[in-house]
């Protein structure tokens, strides 16, 4: 349970808010690289952290991320001409490069020095994992580029996508680190008691703080002294990583992968969820077929989106097309798509969940720690300190893992190698 004040503190993201300031100290995904595939191609609207921006790939391939409005008389840069290393406002032709400098001002006399005085708000960008990352914080605090393991894997081994969710980023994030829910909301095989997550629906949760956030394990005792351990990683401010090494019946998967979500606030009520999959090692490339299958199972197949958008056709407006007969006989929710099931419970809470009404149990331990660490990040920034996880080598070295363990060794020891980055 949170007081309404703390709930607001953790969920408001616009410029000048406590959490808005904290989030702006990290590199965050701004758009997919594929949205600006071509140099000098069409500009793209981006809304993040309550700011309206426009992205464009310039002639040299650099991605600019600038204010959505022209600094002259506020015309929309989205209609701009992306040409010869800059974006030109169509109203009076003022042109800006990817760094925000004004490079041409054709409506002013040729000898005007006004050009040196005017520029457009621009944020630094960096590309990795098929994603354009942006840093929206103060320049003096610019952190090193993101160094997560999956960003070092070859292109053949990494895929990413994104989905728009009508919910505040925090309730989406909390869904992602809530390992207990998978026994229920994602049970798509009712009556199959041999399913690993159905054998034990009350995982014991262990959370360990790290220099980048925390790692946590959902431990399900299976009988015969066996334990099914899913060890996750949580990176501040809003990224989860999990491993898919074994299938629902406990057998090794054909292709072993690391997977994750990054929850980027569009504003207080909407979230862009970035999804990625990375092969666990050189033997596990991600084929087109595997990726399409994964996205389809998640509820993000090509046909699942409202055309021209990142919003799913199944959404709260149509009750996620819940099928009550399917719910009665085959799946726990009657809703198709693994992540669509997540969206159903998260969007259904209301755009910003009222946490003063909740009752947390032992399975919510990771959520409690995440909230505490986010509050600490807000305090750190407010008091002039660098928040946790902005600059640490530790995050380069880790990965999530899952295993079935027998024997007395604690999971941290038994899974030590599995939890070390391979790329
Ligand atoms: S409003 Fe953009 S150039 Fe005038
Ligand atoms: Fe889920």
UniProtKB/TrEMBL annotation:
Residue ranges annotated for the Rieske domain, each copy included: 27-134
GO molecular function: 2 iron, 2 sulfur cluster binding; dioxygenase activity; iron ion binding; monooxygenase activity; oxidoreductase activity, acting on paired donors, with incorporation or reduction of molecular oxygen
Domain of life, per lineage: Bacteria
Entries under InterPro entries matching the protein: ARHD_Rieske_2Fe_2S, Cholesterol_7-desaturase, LigXa_C, Rieske_2Fe-2S, Rieske_2Fe-2S_sf
Keywords in alphabetical order: 2Fe-2S, Dioxygenase, Iron, Iron-sulfur, Metal-binding, Oxidoreductase
Plastid keyword on record: no
Pfam family, one: Rieske
The UniProt record lists the keyword Oxidoreductase: yes
PANTHER family membership: BLR4922 PROTEIN, IRON-SULFUR DOMAIN CONTAINING PROTEIN
Protein name (database record): Aromatic ring-hydroxylating dioxygenase subunit alpha
Organism: Nocardioides agariphilus
């Amino acid at each position: 349970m949170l007081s309404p004040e703390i709930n607001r503190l953790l969920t408001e993201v616009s410029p000048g808010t406590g959490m808005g300031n904290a989030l702006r100290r990290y590199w965050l995904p701004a758009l997919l690289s594929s949205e600006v595939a071509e140099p000098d191609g069409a500009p793209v609207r981006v809304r993040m952290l309550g700011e309206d921006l426009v992205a464009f790939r310039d002639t040299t391939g650099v991605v600019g991320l600038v204010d959505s409005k022209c600094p002259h008389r506020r015309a929309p840069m989205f209609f701009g001409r992306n040409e010869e290393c800059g974006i030109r406002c169509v109203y009076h032709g003022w042109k800006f490069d990817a760094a925000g400098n004004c490079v041409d001002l054709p409506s002013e006399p040729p000898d005007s020095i006004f050009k040196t005085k005017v520029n457009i708000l621009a944020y630094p960008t960096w590309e990795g994992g098929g994603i354009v990352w942006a840093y929206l914080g103060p320049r003096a605090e610019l952190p090193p580029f993101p160094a997560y393991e999956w960003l070092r894997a070859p292109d053949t081994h990494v895929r990413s996508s994104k989905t728009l969710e009508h919910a505040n980023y925090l309730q989406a994030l909390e869904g992602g680190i809530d390992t207990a829910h998978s026994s229920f909301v994602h049970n798509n095989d009712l009556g199959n008691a041999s399913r690993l997550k159905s054998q034990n629906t009350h995982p014991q949760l262990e959370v360990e703080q790290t220099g980048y956030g925390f790692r946590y394990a959902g431990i399900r005792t299976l009988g015969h002294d066996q334990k099914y351990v899913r060890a996750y990683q949580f990176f501040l401010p809003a990224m989860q990583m999990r491993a898919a090494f074994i299938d629902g019946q406990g057998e090794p998967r054909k292709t072993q992968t690391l997977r994750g979500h990054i929850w980027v606030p569009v504003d207080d009520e909407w979230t862009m969820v970035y999804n990625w999959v990375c092969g666990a090692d050189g033997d596990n490339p991600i084929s087109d077929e595997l990726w399409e299958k994964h996205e389809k199972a998640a509820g993000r197949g090509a046909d699942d989106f409202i055309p021209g958008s990142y919003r799913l056709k199944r959404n709260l407006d149509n009750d996620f097309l819940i099928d009550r007969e399917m719910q009665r006989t085959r799946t726990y929710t009657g809703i198709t798509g693994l992540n669509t099931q997540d969206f159903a419970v998260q969007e259904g809470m209301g755009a910003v969940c009222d946490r003063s009404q909740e009752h947390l149990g032992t399975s919510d331990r990771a959520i409690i720690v995440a909230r505490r660490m986010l509050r600490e990040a807000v305090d750190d920034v407010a008091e002039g300190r660098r928040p946790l996880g902005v600059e640490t080598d530790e995050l380069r070295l880790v990965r999530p893992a899952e295993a079935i363990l027998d024997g007395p060794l604690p999971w941290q020891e038994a899974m030590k190698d599995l939890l070390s980055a391979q790329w």
